[in-house]
Amino acid sequence: MSRIQPGSGYGFTSGGYGFTINTTSPFPSESEVSTKHPFKVIPIGPSGSNFRYQVVSGTLNNIVPEIQDVITATEVLLDRTTAGVANPPTGQLSINTSTEESWIYLRAGVSTTSPYNFPDTNLANTPYPKIISSDVQLTDTDTYGYVLLAKFEMDSSSAPTSGALFQYVYGSLWGDRIKLGTTTAKYYYARI
Asked: Mean pLDDT, to the nearest integer, of 9-32?
């Protein structure tokens, strides 16, 4: 019977020829942990006079949003795959030439037909959740609710080569829309 027992911070294996003690950390270091999270905005960099970005797939009420892919010029889901391999779409930043800022939003609307779901679950409808970039700050309307995912500040609007990203959302969301009488609809979100 072995007198060595596993303890805090180490483990061991034993066999007919002796034993070994393993003192390596069972937990990954901070540098080994992925820094990606749902709705993380990733600047890709310049392409001509434009600046491109990608967004890590996330969900709003268990629905994966779309984004306008600049390569295919079509709306595609954030979790797009090609031949079984992840192929995230690439968006283009709309940059305000006077402030050199771009706001990246998750836009979602209520369905236009009964049962008036929020967010709209029909991929073919315009109110279906989408990731958009705007050169101005957007506010909620009766038609759409906007969640600011991140803001990007360019170093130079004349030649977009780099900038600073400010990330505001760090996970998938659950949202609700409340409309009373003639007041503008209110939108509420929680991270899940």
From this structure: 64
pLDDT at 162 over 60: yes
Distance CA(158)–CA(38), nearest Å, equals 31
The whole-number pLDDT of residue 163 equals: 84
Contact indicator for 186, 72 with CB cutoff of 8 Å: no
Give Cα separations from 73 to 89, 116, 188 (angstroms). 10, 29, 31
Pairing of strands 81-82, 85-86: antiparallel
User: What's the rounded Cα separation, in Å, for the pair 120 and 1?
Assistant: 65
Asked if 94 contacts 104 with a C-beta cutoff of 8 angstroms, the reply is no
- What sign has the CA pseudo-torsion 125, 70, 135, 175? positive
For residue 127, which of 57, 137, 136, 141 has the smallest C-alpha distance? 141
**Contact in structure between 47 and 54 (CB atoms under 8 Å):** no
> Are the beta carbons of 169 and 175 closer than 8 angstroms?
no
The per-residue pLDDT of the chain, averaged, comes to: 86
The pair of structure tokens assigned to 75 is 């709306």
Per-residue pLDDT averaged across 105-117, rounded?
91
Distance CA 148, CA 166 (A): 10
**Tokens read off for 108:** 């979602």
Residues in the chain: 192
Return the amino acid letter for 131.
Answer: I
The residue extents of the domains of the chain are: 28-191
